[in-house]
Amino acid sequence: MIESDLEKVIQAIEMPVCLSFDKVIPGEYDFVLQGKSRLWNIKVSFPEQFPYCLPSAKLLDTDLIGTLAHVNKNGTICLEEGDSVLVDYTRPLDIVCLFLNQIVSLLERMKLGIYQDELLDEFEGYFLPRKKINSFYYAQNKLEWIYLRQGNWNKNGQPKYIVPLFISDRNVSTPPQFSNIKNLGAFQRSKILHIPLDQSILPPANGENITSTYITAAKQHIDEKNRKALTKHLKKTSPHKLFFILLSMPRSSGERSQLLLRFDAEKSLPHPLLENNEEWSITPYSVKRHNKEYLLERGGAEKYLLDNKVAIIGCGSVGGEITTMLAKAGIGELTLVDHDILDADNIYRHRLGGSYLNFLPSEKTGAINAWKKVDALAAMLKQDLPHITVNSKPLLFEQVINDPDIINADVIVIAIGSPSVSLIINQTLKALGHQNVIYCWNEAAGCGGHSVAVNLNHSCLECLYEKDGRISAVNEISLVEPGQDISKNITGCAGVFTPFSYLDSSRTAEAAAQQAIDMLISNKHSVIMSWKGDNAHNLRVTERYENMPLKQEMNLSKNDQCRVCHG
Amino acid sequence: MISIAEAIKASFTQLWDQDSEGFKWSTEILLPVQPYKDVYYKMTLSQLDNFYHKTVDLVEALKAAKGEEAAHQASKILRKVFGDDFPLVEDSKKSAAAPYVVTGYNA
After folding, report:
1. Quick check: B102 and A82 CB within 8 A?
2. Nearest to residue A352, comparing CAs of A330, A324, A387?
3. Quick one: closest CA in A to B53, which residue?
4. End-to-end alpha-carbon separation of chain A, Å?
5. Which residues on chain A are in Cβ contact (under 8 Å) with B107?
6. pLDDT tens across A15-64, in order?
7. Which of A130, A215, A382, B88 would bridge A177 by S-S if both were Cys, CB 3.0 to 4.6 A apart?
8. CB–CB of B36/B27 below 8 Å?
9. A233-245 pLDDT, tens per residue?
């Protein structure tokens, strides 16, 4: 909004809470707002995009900073509106009035003692340091040495500056395949102290910075056991110009608040926890957590799936996608079975892309070795997700039936496409006493797909196919009439393939992944989930295809004629 | 309710605490029947002091809720006191006619 229009909006404000305002600079106004308990001095900034977004507000009463929840160290007031706000840009005056009213209401509420817990809980958010440190350390109430990786950099001829890079537990190894974490080994590793407080404390008053006196006062909130450990550990320290400590304190829900504190001094001084010295310049770093407990919850994964094991038989286009979805859902252990290699032909419809195609010869043999799909998926997932176990089995199903990873799987997903092989696997799993199994496949040419969740004690895949003592190609869930010329070939017989796309496989995979999770969480089974796509190739379709909605869920019941179920 | 909370608050007196070398708030409420024992006899001085401060916060919150014209704002305060079981009164200003609303959309 241009300045003159904004000015008109502000001039038009008529509301009891707004006592006065002053324009500070273009787009920025200082307001005096009347609350029930006091006057509030607020700076409101209007970004250029206003009224397509909300303005932001800062509390100018610095004596209250550090005492009110949802007001950070800079005075910024958090209205908790987030990115999902829909703003009626045609009514800028109404937006400003509601915004000011909400600010006053929020501040008046936060002034009440009952909201102090929220201030204590948002210790990290209060400081919101610009500098950040990655961490794999799960801070709990234990005072201990932890590892800090740090780098040295020269900037514009200045003396070397130490930059903290990474915090980790001394007793728990970080997953080496995750991201480019293994390269951190090239950086210096030192030990720093984790100082856990046994209760949360308020930030320094008046929005002030953390000082040595503040840290010294915080020490009284270290419990007896940790205090003894601290005394012991501090004896091992010698004076230095630079120290780091990781300070943590409990929050009302789970994770502890954490700040990495950097202590710099002009000359060597004893450890800052040994004696109070205002010569320390203290810089807080916010901790970017990578520990399992935090990442799963923050990322929307389900923490309770972490103990579950799922085996995926067939890691083609559908199976590869299911694997990724289940991994992202938070399944702790996946076993992947597929003997196939990844080929250039796959990359437009498989989760794995060109980064897993190999063009270089082996140093030993000179052969250009291709990635097995399961190995490539395992490598991809371990690089993407730090807290997952992936067992890759580049074998045929019959070679793994006695493998403990298959025997112990909570759910087995069969995504091999071939209906005949699926039926053999169905018989084998039933004979081996497996229960929770999901079969999924695409119909031809993007016409649809199915995922069938069965408990083999109740029904099985063959229940769908048995009819009049025979295996019938048309069953109650089919969408495309069988027996049509569906395959394509571009380069002769060796290049025969069935046309389907990545999107088709993703839809089927979504249904199967959802069924696997439903099975694990609520033991839901005997359900068929089908989706319907366009019949772009004018194939002959079934009556079900004609009548079904784009998605449909059906119950699967035991077929009296099924020779698998009835032995 | 305010008067009950205020009565609880008024029952507290300050006692010297050796451990923290400061005053702490304490109270003694005797059972009205035999054995006429202090109902808070199991609480430490620190716990009683904490109880006092929570009572102060409760009185403050109840008064703030009572003085609040907007039922939505009052219910927000009471919800904070009593927990999520306390009903939240819908915000009349946050209807479809509000100039901005939180949608919860994400991508």
Report:
1. yes
2. A324
3. A113
4. 75
5. none
6. 999 999 999 999 999 999 999 889 999 999 999 999 999 999 999 999 99
7. A382
8. no
9. 999 899 999 999 9
Are residues A553 and A529 in contact, defined by beta-carbon separation less than 8 angstroms?
A: yes
pTM of the shown model: 0.84
Q: Is A101 on the interface with B (CB under 8 A)?
A: yes
Q: What amino acid is encoded at A171 in this protein?
A: N
Given a cut of 90, whether residue A306 has pLDDT beyond it is no
pLDDT (0 to 100) of residue A498: 57
Sign of CA dihedral B6, B11, B13, B18: negative
Residues from chain B that touch A105, judged by Cβ atoms under 8 A, are 70, 73
Q: Which residues does chain B have within 8 Å of residue A82's beta carbon, measured at their own beta carbons?
A: 102
End-to-end CA distance of chain B: 46
Show which of residues 72-101 on chain B sit within 8 Å of chain A, judged by CB atoms. Answer: 73, 76-77, 80-81, 93, 98-101
Rounded average pLDDT over A432-445: 93
Q: Count the residues in chain A.
A: 567
Report the phi/psi class of residue B57: left, alpha or beta, with left for phi > 0 and alpha for psi in -120 to 50. alpha
> What does the block give as tokens for A412?
């087995």
Q: Please write the tens of the pLDDT for every residue from A162-176.
A: 999 999 999 998 998
Q: In Å, how far from its chain's centre is CA A27?
A: 37
Residue B89 has pLDDT above 80, yes or no: yes
For residue A380, give the 3-state DSSP assignment. helix
For residue B82, give the chain A residue with the closest CA: A114
DSSP states along A109-142: HHTSGGGHHHHHHTHHHHH--SSEEEE-----S-
Domain limits of chain A? 3-111, 130-290, 309-566
Task: Please indicate if any CB of chain A lies within 8 Å of the CB of B65.
Answer: no
Decide if pLDDT at A324 tops 90. Answer: yes
A113, with CB counted inside 10 A (0-12, 13-18, 19+), is middle
Question: Residue A321: in which H helix or E strand, if any?
Answer: helix A317-329
Asked if A88 reaches chain B (Cβ–Cβ under 8 Å), the answer is yes
The CATH code belonging to domain A3-111 is 3.10.110.10
Three-class SS state of A264? strand
**Do residues A273 and A234 make contact, with C-beta atoms less than 8 angstroms apart?**
yes
Q: Counting one residue from A and one from B, how many pairs have CB atoms under 8 Å apart?
A: 65
How close does chain A come to B8, measured CA to CA in Å?
A: 17
**Angle subtended at Cα A293 by Cα A291 and Cα A294, rounded to the nearest 5 degrees:** 70
Q: Which of A13, A53, A56, A84 to mutate to test the interface with B (most CBs of B within 10 A)?
A: A84
Please tell me the distance from the alpha carbon of residue A362 to that of residue A366, in angstroms, as a whole number.
Answer: 5
Cβ-based contacts of B73 with chain A (< 8 Å) = 105, 109
Concatenate the DSSP letters of all residues of A190-246 into one string. EEEEEEE-SS--PPPGGGPPP-HHHHHHHGGGS-HHHHHHHHHHHHT---EEEEEEE
Domain covering A309-566 in this structure, CATH number: 3.40.50.720
